[in-house]
Design goal:
By secondary structure, this protein is of the alpha/beta class. It has ten helices and six strands. It has a six-stranded parallel sheet, with helices on both faces. Strand 4, helix 4 and strand 5 form a beta-alpha-beta unit. The mean pLDDT is 88.
Length: 204
């Protein structure tokens, strides 16, 4: 049998961490997990130890789960990370996946579903709580449908890394007009940056 997997649980609720430790402790595929109560503690531990996977809460303070994920991807790019949260909003799912998470599991998952989801990620798969997959696909289809043909053109150019000036030159419009279109794109898609919009287009 292969060596048991080592997990790091990052959540600001001690009772939840305790329950997860008991759940995983009953499965011979897992070692007793390490624990961290917030993102800063997790990053400090990762500087000394290297687990196989980080199970990360999304809604934490002072460092959010998304910010913690971004830091992990910067400093430990090969480390597997699964977000574990109460949120089932497609925008949260998309933001987390765009930031590089290997999975997104909600906290009302059945215990067996959680454990098997973690095992699948550790085996090399990406995992999303099944009931969120349809909602995510619908949301991804929806953003493109509400764009005008010109906005879809501009979205594609943003995905290619074009600036507002370069977009204007490519489409024979002024830089100011391109800027207005980009602003409308951000509003319609709910994206907070050009990078996020580019990732959405590339994956769409």
């Amino acid at each position: 049998m292969a060596e048991p997997w080592q997990l790091l649980l990052v959540d600001d609720h001690p009772m939840l961490r305790r329950g997860l430790c008991q759940l995983l402790g009953g499965d011979p595929r897992f070692q007793p997990p390490w624990e961290a109560g917030n993102g800063h503690e997790a990053l400090a531990l990762l500087a000394r130890q290297q687990p196989d996977l980080v199970l990360l809460d999304l809604n934490m303070r002072p460092l959010s789960g998304l910010d913690t994920l971004t830091a992990i991807r910067r400093d430990f790019p090969q480390l597997k990370v699964v977000m574990f949260t109460v949120s089932d909003h497609p925008r949260d799912v998309q933001s987390v996946l765009n930031a590089g998470a290997d999975g997104y599991l909600v906290k009302d998952s059945e215990p067996e579903e959680l454990v098997e989801g973690l095992a699948r990620v550790l085996a090399g798969a990406s995992v999303i709580t099944p009931r969120l997959e349809a909602a995510l696909a619908e949301a991804e289809a929806g953003w493109a449908a509400q764009l005008t043909p010109r906005e879809r053109q501009i979205a594609e150019l943003i995905a290619e890394g074009k600036s507002n000036k370069a977009i204007g030159e490519a489409l024979f419009i002024s830089e100011g007009t391109a800027k207005v279109h980009v602003k409308n794109l951000m509003r319609k898609t709910g994206c907070h940056s050009r990078v996020e919009l580019a990732l959405m287009v590339r994956e769409g």
